[in-house]
Amino acid sequence: MKHPSWEELSAYLDHALDTHRWAVVARHLEDCQACRDDLAELEAEQRALERVVRRDPGDAYFDTFLAGVEARLDVDRGAKAPAGLTRGWARWWQSPRVLAAAGGVAALAVVAGVVLVSRPWERAPLRDATLAARGAQTAPGPAGPAATGEAGSPGSAADVAPLTANEAPAGGGTPAPGAAPAPADEADRAGSAAPAPAPARAYEVRRDEASGEAVRLQPPPAPGAPAAAKQEGASAPLSDLKRRAAQPLTSNEAASRALAPQPAPAPGAALEARASGAAAPGRLCGEVSDATGRALRFASVVLVRGGVSVQTDDGGRFCLGGPSGPDTLVVSLVGFRPARLAVRLGPDVPEVSVRLETVSPLERLSVGGASRPRAEAPPAAAGAFAALPESLRRIAESAGSLQRTAADTRQARAYDASAAEWERLLERVRGTSHELEVRRRLAEARFRAWELDPDARRAGAATEALTAYLTRAPAGAERNRAAEWLDRVRR
């Protein structure tokens, strides 16, 4: 693995890492001298910080702190400045409060000036009332097509030019010269009550977004006249429509097509790409037996890196799954010494055979040159929680197996892991007859973890668990022992 960062080393030193990450960092420190040196440096800095004297001066000190600073400044200025400058306005301007206020006013003035200069000013367009009134005036003109193009803009002549025979509209309109009028046209002309109004010299136009040309807006039809087509494509000549369709796209149309949503890739492509880079899952099977070759059932088998645990079946066999690669296998059972061996998971790895050695209840441990009895392992959890459902009974068996492993290996982290499993079971058995027993085992696991590696975090957890158990436990030997543990933690 890569070297742990300073944050991870600090969390490892403060016991703030989770169980899996703590084990990974611990294995790395066993093989890396540079990381061990960094950890030793962190420990030296922590010990140096603990020797620093901390004293709270109190609120009274801060109430008079500013006045003391000002008095000291006045004394220093009076000793250094000439006598003429220590009186009048000169002394007033030397006050820190006055200088701070003046600086704030100056900064506010600068900000206001920048805002006023950078603010955009909009100027209203000039408009002459006389010219506007003249432009609104209308004058009668001679009737006929020639008058319509008298005051037109560029492009308006094409709109009012007579249609040729090839460009005659299909839906009816002005017939070609010399052609006989249709009956429908004669009826329309007969039904017209008033002639069309003469065009004015000033009329409204609009600019076409596609071609950029100015197009004249048609005046409203006279009463009784046939309604004009509302769409531009219906009123424009056919040749004009063809010319516009053949023109290249404008900038607006090109931008709209560029921003159009592209088709999404096939859903299966991402899954295939992800599956091609994923590591194949590994598998490890084996059997657990004693020194005589007898199969051991209900033995706890745990993968440290993968975080997977199972129990052996009646034939002492087990199978575990996890990510391919090296890992550490821990096998434990009550009455036997735990076995720890390095294994490798893969799709086709050979089976492992684990032999557990029996231990004597009177076996003693040698710690620091002196011997003391091994901590008593808690009884198996299967019998005390046999009435629980299968899912909860598995949690109890896992917690009991971890606590037995912790009692054999005497590792505080193992007791922490066991306590986490007991807390998980406690959330599901609150209010039942099993709550008291779960609280007792949880309190014992928290106390053992504090006993092996005492710190503030473990002391708080042990105090909380022991207090919760003592408030519910009846009088007896178990309650007396828990009370003794609580006194030891509080000392």
Polypeptide structure, described:
This protein is an alpha+beta fold and 491 residues long. Among the domains are: 6-44, no CATH class; 280-358, Immunoglobulin-like, CATH 2.60.40.1120; 377-490. 47% of the residues lie in helices and 13% in strands. It has helices at residues 6-13, 19-31, 33-50, 59-63, 65-80, 89-93, 96-118, 129-136, 145-148, 156-160, 183-191, 232-235, 238-246, 251-258, 267-277, 381-384, 390-409, 412-426, 435-452, 456-470, 477-490; strands at residues 205-207, 214-216, 281-290, 300-303, 308-311, 317-323, 325-332, 336-337, 339-345, 352-358, 364-367, 370-373. The strands form four sheets. A four-stranded mixed β-sheet has the order 6-3-10-8, with no helix packed on it. The chain has a four-stranded antiparallel β-sheet with strand order 5-4-7-9, covered by helices on one side. A two-stranded antiparallel sheet has the order 1-2. A hairpin with a 4-residue loop joins β4 and β5.
Quick recap of the structure?
The protein has 491 residues and is of the alpha+beta class. It has helices spanning 6-13, 19-31, 33-50, 59-63, 65-80, 89-93, 96-118, 129-136, 145-148, 156-160, 183-191, 232-235, 238-246, 251-258, 267-277, 381-384, 390-409, 412-426, 435-452, 456-470, 477-490; strands at 205-207, 214-216, 281-290, 300-303, 308-311, 317-323, 325-332, 336-337, 339-345, 352-358, 364-367, 370-373. Among the domains are: 6-44, no CATH class; 280-358, Sandwich (Immunoglobulin-like); 377-490.
Record keyword descriptors for this entry.
about 500 residues, alpha+beta, Immunoglobulin-like, 4-stranded mixed sheet, 4-stranded antiparallel sheet, 21 helices, about 45% helix, about 15% strand, CarboxyPept-like_regulatory, Anti_sigma_zinc_sf, coiled coil
